[in-house]
Amino acid sequence: MYRLFVVLIVLVGLQSVMGCHGGPNNEIMRHESFSDDVRFKEPPSDMKDIPARGIGFTGAEHRGIEPYSRPQTEEFRLEEGEPFTPYLNLLNTSLESRTFFITTILDYKQASFRLDGKTAVLHEITVPPGTDMELPFRIEIDNPGVHDLQIVAFDYPYNQTLDIDFRMDLYGYVTARRAVIVVGEGESPARTPTPEIEGTPAPEDVSFKPWVCFAEAPESEEIHPSERQLYVGKADTGKPYQFQILLNNPDQEAADYALIPFLDFHQVEIQGHDVIVAHLEPGEEAIIDAELKMPETPGVHQFQIIWLFDPYKSVLNQEVLAPFVFGSPRIAIETR
Length: 336
Hints:
It contains 1 helix and 26 strands. With 336 residues, the chain is an all-beta fold.
């Protein structure tokens, strides 16, 4: 059984690297007070001494059970018309409060949801130090069939630094969780995202092979994207920004990658697609030419991809290459 939390170790001191270029998109729901239904608990004992963040679901009937003794939360079954209403766990074992932007992705589209009685696409939650926070969660799922749901927490959302060391985190300060939700008797996926991109064998002399990263637009096709790594860029306001997405499969199994692009924590389209699906065999790479229309507002804009393996496959039955949801590097693009 996979653990309740997707936990990423956090490097100490990152919050001190703060930019001063204004804030991200302000269309968010800030939670400054909480209902009596919200619980603040101590983290599991094996996590107390590890500076980490985590996210997960807990069924209402399981709140009194120790985290590792609770039933699985990889797959749920609902009746038609029944909302999905677990409790959302947010974990912060560090010595400082952490502010997260929380969003959901339902069937590969960013979706509005209710958190502690408030409805929005993006919620801002600050978790006190050394706390496992438990909040009532609700999302409506209208159609019968199989649905993919991801819940994503963006750490350091207000850090708009252009410092490359901060931007080089390969998972982009994201912690996320996925679940399959089957509504009614239907067994067909709500969407059928099929791979439109196929991998090709990666050059043998390339040593930098992260799962997902970015490269500057090529001036010469002879320079591999791994030698043009992109973490900080500059663009004109309102104009297209061209770059490349580099995918790698260093594993021993083939996988489909679902890539969901986000600009300033809101889902956007790349080349007319709100989700890009690629198929990579072991040892393959894919290089995707990308163009992103920049906002009219000058300042620093943050772009990253939320990605996962094998859309609509069962996590519970271990049909996926890995059960987690990942972030790419969160690059900063300064517009003027």
